[in-house]
Amino acid sequence: MKKLILTLIFVLNVHPAFTEPDFETFLLLNMPSGDIAQADDREMDRTVQIYAKRQVSEDVVVLLYAATQTGPHSGDKGHTVYLSTANISGDSPAVLSSMDITDRLASYTEYPGHFSEMDGVMDSFEMPGGKKGIHVNLWSVLAGSGHLSSSSDLFMSIQPDFSLQPVLSLPGSSSYSKVGFKMFSSCMAYLFYGDIDADSGNEILALDTQYRSEEPHDAHITLNPTMRVFKFNGQGYVPAGAINMFEEAKIDVKPFHFSKKIMYFNVPAALNSLFDCQGS
Hints:
Order of helices and strands: HHEEEEEEEEEEEEEEEHH
Structural class: mainly beta
């Protein structure tokens, strides 16, 4: 077996949610009418929180935000989650496109979006053909001592009119569940991108890991050295085989970011120690 020289650097989302009161009020007032009616049916007063923002041109940003049920809630509460593009030039912003991605958060109770807390982080990356892509990592957790949580990863292509076209969805890319005081089970897919076959187009790679404790002082780590590969076919990213990270002499890839809340719950620091990498 060849020496592992693949260098993986994991960069966490270390900034808090954006606090832009005027912009958040604008987003709240410009929610789609159907979503407003649905919230009214549930007698749901809402507030908007922006979780991630990425500038994709001089005047346009992509926003990840949620309209969240307000009031004293000891358990899960309703969220409606959006991924939108907005023009920020001039005196007033304008929403160019908006996509409801609430159902992409896998951990919920009564209905999609009904959970205790969420988080999200966003990256931009170059797609084949000079297209700009957006990656979003979404995480949610349910109320209760079990800390049942999961995340999903979405990949979008930014169109010429600044609308967003889905090109890949990886639901359940991480999960965590706890039984008792110290027994838990978690899994996580570390995601990367790079031109691994020198065809002038970035592929997306997924490295799957599992971490579990069946006894209070007995932890087990499972690392699958086979990295799943997704290749762009002109419309979206599709499965294109796999590569063995131990057999490759060198893979020049960059990491996609993930929510820091995953670190708190999934405890992957022990997994990171298997690599020549840095975590914060």
